[in-house]
Every structure is written in structure tokens, then in C-alpha cells.
Amino acid sequence: MHLESLRIRGLRCLEDVVLPLAPGVSVFAGANGAGKTSVLEAAFLLSHARSFRAGAKDALLQRGADSLSVFAELRHGDGRGSRLGLGRQGSRWEARKDGEVVSLSELVGECAVVCFEPGSHALIAGGAEERRRYLDWGVFHVEHEFMGAWRRYQRALKQRNALLRQSMSIPEALFLPWEAELDATATLIDHMRQLYLTALRPHIETTMRSLLPELGAGELRYRRGWAEESTLGALLSSPRGRDLSRGHTTLGSHRADWSIAFEHAPQREHLSRGQEKLTALGCMLAQAALYAERKGEWPVVCLDDLASELDKAHQAAVVSQLQAVGAQVLVTGTEVPEALQGSPALVFHVEQGRLNPLL
């Protein structure tokens, strides 16, 4: 798939920007703070309904603006086109597809964008929440039942946590239906996550051999969020003392995590910052490759500040791989990365929120 055009209004320093895009590589070059990353952020919003920037939720709106919007014309590999929009008024988001209001999940299901950016190392070195987001975005795109199960799980989790936080003694009967729902939906979610990871493993192995051959074989490990030998329902109901004292549910799918252990770096603490970045890049490329295998088209790939994040050899290798498979690639940098100089690419100069194509 590829974006044919992108219109951005009120996003950070981008007041009203219209970008004609094409398959292949587009480069956005300019000084720091000019608005380059915000272009990638706009594309990412359409695919995830959130920013890839940490703590960005309240900073998305342009200063003085009360709304923002992103519109795109998307073309799929089979020739099918769609018009997508995402707008925010205050704290409320509204999604549109071909002019009709749709759910955020329908919007996210239509547009796939993956991103490698300066904060991507958090996928490896950060908390489990980022790794669950990565995992569940991939599962969502290949398992139709996932979103329904995830919503049911979140509703039951919210209800049980509300009971746990009440100061009065709560009859056991009030917990049982929510715990039964958590047990059933967590089992389904865990099954779909494990199926996805089984399919992802060979792609992870391939990308890690290419990016980090010095670390030896890599092993993808998964923890589902509760003991393997027990059902979640049994663990939640007996005993509840720890959860009652903490006021929230400490076991379940919302506590799942995964990691990569290398032959010569069995713990993530053994990785350098550069190796964390390359591992995160490998995970992103592996997820994109699996998406392409299942859907028959590559997602849009965003590479933010490429020259600062990767050395020249890795820049060239990644760009060459993505060009070979025909992926649309959006790249930012203070200048055109050396790996792209001399190759066909659309280049935009970005200055103070304005974008001008360079001929």
C-alpha cells in the first residue's frame, strides 16, 4: 500500500500542509524543529490512533488551535483506493473512511504504518506496555476476533478493578462473572498472541541475522501474564488478598510481555544502546514483512532521523531492502541521508512548518 496524498492541519507546527506522495521513497529534510517528524507522526496517527512520541497526547495540537486533522488518499496493492481521515476536537477523536464516520479500529484496520524513530529502543529497553502494543497491533491485523476479545477483556478488567478499589467488603458473587469473563477472553487473547509470535519468529530470526550477526542466534520469549500451569480464573478467585490490597488486578493478559535473548547476549542489559536500536529496527522490519506475507502488500515504513540513528552501512542495507520489496518509505533528516543520495526519491525541504518539493 502507499499514501498518494496527505493533508495535515493543526498538528504541532503544521498549520495546513498538503503533500502529494508517490510509491517509493520520500525524504523530508530540514533543521531540527522544522516539522519533519510531524509528517511521519500524521501518517502514524492514521494507523495507530496515537503518536509514536512519548507523552505526546497533549502536545499534538498546534499552539492556539483547538482541533487537528489528518486526511489521506490511500492506494492498496490490488488497486483499491480509500480516503481516510482522523480529527481531534478537544480530547475527542473522530475517524472517517470514504466520507463516512467509522470506528477508530476500522480506520486502523485500513491503514498500516510502521515506524523506526529515536525512541524505538524503548521496545527493547523500556517497559512491557510498549511491547504489548507492538504485539497487539500485529495480532489485530491478522486475527479478526482479536479486537472483540480485547474489548471484552478491558471491560471486565475495568469492572473488577472498580470492585477491588471499594473500601467496603464486596460479596464474592460480584467478582465471579467478571473473573469468568477475564478467564475466557484472556485465554483467547493468549492463543492469538502465541499464533502470531509463531508466525513472526522466522522473520525475527532473518532480520536479526542480517542486522546483528555478532550476537548469534536470537530466541523470542513470551510470558502470557499468569502462570502456565493454572487457569487465570482460578488464580484471580483464590486468593484475592494481594489484588485487594493493591486495588488492581495483577495477573492477566494486560501483564503479558515478550523479549529477545541472543546467544551472546542472553539478557537485554547485555546490549549496547546501538544494539538495542538495531534489535528494535529488526522487530519493526520483521513485523512489516509478516504483514506483507499475510496481506499481500507492505505497510508504509517511516524512518525518522535515519542518519542519526543508524551508521552508513545499516542505512544502506535497510533502504536497499525496502526498495527491493517496493515499500513506500518516508524518511526524515537534517539533510538527504547518504544512503539515498543518487537514488530516485521525492525530496521535500521543511522549514518552520512549510514543505516545499525540491526538483
Walk me through the structure:
The structure is a single chain. The chain is α/β, with parallel strands linked by helices. Helices cover 42% and strands 24% of the residues. The chain has two domains: 1-112 and 299-359, Rossmann fold; 125-296, Glutathione S-transferase Yfyf (Class Pi), Chain A, domain 2 (Up-down Bundle), CATH 1.20.1050.90. It has helices at residues 36-48, 104-110, 122-125, 128-142, 146-164, 172-211, 232-237, 241-246, 273-295, 306-309, 312-325; strands at 2-11, 14-20, 25-30, 67-75, 81-89, 92-97, 100-102, 113-116, 218-223, 257-262, 300-303, 329-333, 346-351, 354-358. Helix 4 crosses helix 6 (172-211). It starts with a strand and ends with a strand. The model has no long low-confidence stretch (mean pLDDT 93).
Concise summary:
By secondary structure, this protein is of the alpha/beta class.
